[in-house]
Amino acid sequence: MESQAKKAGVDLDALKAGGFIKEVGKEMFTVRLRIPGGRVPVSRLKKIVEVAEKYGGEFVHLSLRQAIELVHVNFKHLDDVTRELGLADQGIASCGARVRVPVACGGCEYNPNGLVDTQKSAAEIDTALFGIETGHHKLKVGFAGCPCDCPKSATNDIGFQGAVRPVLDKAACLSCGICVKACPVGAIVNGEEKEPLFVPEKCIWCGNCINSCPSGAWQASKRGYTVRIGGKWGINPLVGTLFATFLPESHVVDFTKEVLAWYVTNSEGLGRIRLGDLILRKGVGSLLDHLRLRFPDHTVQKTIPPRVIDTQTGLQPYPIPKEGEMCYETDNRSEGNLLPFQLLQGQAGA
Ligand code: SF4
Ligand code: SF4
Ligand code: SF4
């Protein structure tokens, strides 16, 4: 194929960078489409079907990162595929050492659990950063609308998870006990008079109390994203750990730019290294210090390195933090705002 491609003036590396992936079959490519947050307008979907029928195989593949992939496209048709999809504003994804298309769940727009507009955030990241070369490795961003974390945001290089901090208006409370039962982690307990008592160190910021209270006594005092950094999947998976809390939705692009800037600068000379591996190598303090300069109100005081999930051998290929590091992660703002380590890790839902 390579010699044929050369003869035809086709640059295979450039194709892969643009989301065209060489298949096993002679002259055949998979074309990965750029679909931030997995959202495809129906009108655009019709064009994708039209192009797939014209140039692709008998099926399309839905990638695990929410992309539609047209399979079995002959490389002679790649220009036509790109042009015809472009008529419906449908772009091609990227591969290689670039900022990839972000993934997201439905968020708050129509999902009753959603606390933030993940689709808007994903679209903003895609518009601002898609395809930027990192010079080292891929960089994946994911958005979950709430702590259920269906998109498994902590396994992205940068994972955003919707969060809300509840505050109780005691005067409005009916002492019905509904919020005590609705809290999934026991962060609200009954007081002596059956009044609800908030236990902030147990709270995972899910908002169930706010959504379930019949009198509106629980309100949101803060809303935004919990941010975990350093995750990845693959041969040596890592789960990203906590770097910021209640980051406003309006700061998502700037925050991601700062992480990217730290990654690019600090991985100089280290070749093909993922963000999580770089954090393990440099220590979490360097990235925390960098983020604190721009986001002092949201960067946590301390955190732990990305956590290893050894899916291959059970031999723990990464350095394991010392006992003392298995501590509570705290943010830097308020009393009692402690986030237990076990609640910050692997909150993946379905
Ligand atoms: S993370 Fe899951 S439950 Fe939460 S808003 Fe997204 S899809 Fe809904
Ligand atoms: S659900 Fe609302 S009204 Fe009922 S106990 Fe909780 S805060 Fe009070
Ligand atoms: S936000 Fe969620 S975890 Fe926190 S108190 Fe309310 S129901 Fe419990």
Chain-wise SSE layout:
Layout: H1 2-7, H2 12-17, E1 20-22, E2 28-32, H3 42-55, E3 60-62, E4 68-74, H4 78-86, E5 103-104, H5 118-129, E6 141-144, E7 158-168, H6 178-182, E8 188-190, E9 196-198, H7 208-212, E10 218-229, E11 238-239, E12 241-247, H8 252-266, H9 275-282, H10 284-294, E13 307-308, E14 329-330, E15 338-339, H11 341-344
The chain binds iron/sulfur cluster (3 copies).
One iron/sulfur cluster (SF4) binds at residues 166, 182-183, 185, 187-188, 203-209.
Mean pLDDT: 87
Number of strands: 15
* Largest sheet data: 5 strands, mixed
Shape: globular
Entry summary:
27% of the residues lie in helices and 19% in strands. The protein has 350 residues and is α+β, with helices and mostly antiparallel strands. α5 crosses α8 and α8 packs across α10 (284-294).
Structure description:
The strands form five sheets. A five-stranded mixed β-sheet has the order 5-6-7-10-12. The chain has a four-stranded antiparallel β-sheet with strand order 1-2-4-3. Strands 8-9 form a two-stranded antiparallel sheet. Mean pLDDT is 87; it is low at 320-350. 27% of the residues lie in helices and 19% in strands. Helix 5 crosses helix 8 (252-266) and helix 8 (252-266) crosses helix 10 (284-294). It is of the alpha+beta class and 350 residues long. It has two domains: 2-86, Alpha-Beta Plaits (2-Layer Sandwich); 103-165 and 222-344, Sulfite Reductase Hemoprotein, domain 1. The chain has eleven helices and 15 strands. The structure holds iron/sulfur cluster (3 copies). One iron/sulfur cluster binds at residues 173-179, 196, 213-215, 217-218.
